[in-house]
Amino acid sequence: MTNPLKKKPAIRLAPGFIKQLQNYVFLMRLDKPIGVWLLLWPTLWALWLAGEGHPDAGVFTVFILGVIVMRSAGCVLNDFADRNIDPYVERTRTRPIASGAVAPAEAITLFVALALVAVGLAAMLNPPAQLLAVIAAGLTVVYPFIKRFISIPQFVLGAAFGWAVPMAFAAQTGNAPQLAWLVFGTALIWAVIYDTFYAMVDREDDLKVGVKSTAILFGDADLFVIGGLQLLMLVALLFVGKMAELGFWFYGAVAIAAILMLYHQWLARDRQEAGCFKAFQHNHYIGMIVFVGIVLHYTFNPVVPA
Predict the structure, then answer these.
(1) 167 near 62, Cβ under 8 Å?
(2) For the chain, which domains are there?
(3) Residue 245: is it exposed, middle or buried by C-beta count within 10 angstroms (0-12/13-18/19+)?
(4) Residue 87 has what DSSP assignment?
(5) Full-model pTM
(6) CB 52 within 8 Å of CB 179
(7) Which residue, among 158, 160, 183, 177, has the nearest Cα to 250 in the 3D structure?
(8) How far apart are CA 259 and CA 129, in angstroms?
(9) Is 117 exposed, middle or buried (0-12, 13-18, 19+ CB in 10 A)?
(10) Which residues contact 195 (CB under 8 A, 6 or more apart)?
């Protein structure tokens, strides 16, 4: 007679299975959340502005999950598209597909699975947001391949990363007003700034393999052009503050963002890979500071219902 108190043997997963799950995590860059943050901050700007400090909880949840899923899907598709390029680039040769740890067919299967999750999340939104989600999906698919054909792929990336802004306004209010497009433009400019820093890290390798980027296009004028874009972004943020009737807290955040931009210029001053990469990563704090300014405005200057 069996003893009912006897413990059943634990189910053990094969080491190979666990290792492959880790490879999928690396493929989705879940171990490197910087991309999630850079995509998340403009989304949060939009949700708080559209909701006047009080975004809908359901919409908020869908967009947080959507940011993680879409960024993961974009990384998987990007590595699939670059599977014949990454092995020849120092920084990317150890990526799962480039190293052979994940087969291209596995990557496509994972991308489809993530895309289906994204479709499910979009189905929870209202029709205007769903319509904009179709365009977001198109931008996500196009970007990994566009850098072979045009010299400004960072602008396409900016559009893809910023498209959550009009989506958030549409989901929260039912439409995408002028303010939404101004915030979208600000997010697009910001993406070109930080992704040009990122492209400066790979410039020499990209020239060898034929990948195009704004870092290559701008050449020796790269930091000067980035400086101009940083100034343009600050002006755009000032217009956002004026249009949204934001106050001291927001403008203080913009001032801090300006100081951080100067710091990024200093980091990349010698165009060394380490400094450029640090400037790219540190841009995350600009998005965070701007969001904090928006939150503090609505916290200490609550909107009074009409």
Answers:
(1) no
(2) 28-300 (1.10.357.140)
(3) exposed
(4) G
(5) 0.90
(6) no
(7) 183
(8) 35
(9) middle
(10) 154, 157, 158, 214, 280
